[in-house]
Amino acid sequence: MHQLQKTALGTIFLGSVETEADLEAAANLATHCHEYQEDVEDEAYFNGSKTCFDCRFRRWLSGGFSCLKNFPGTSHNK
What is the mean pLDDT of residues 9-23? Predict the structure, then answer.
């Protein structure tokens, strides 16, 4: 199951592209994110889906990704 962690450097999503619940959570976050932008085609993981896994502001980490923008409901500065 996914987990959001707020750090000094931003927000981290811990979850897997192989878990349906994590995919749904990342899609829900992306749907409500005003900063979401599709990544370039070569970097897209799920072509045609609006999910944080395909956002140009996500950076992969072991076990998840970090968001260079704010997730909805977080209080980090942009």
Answer: 89
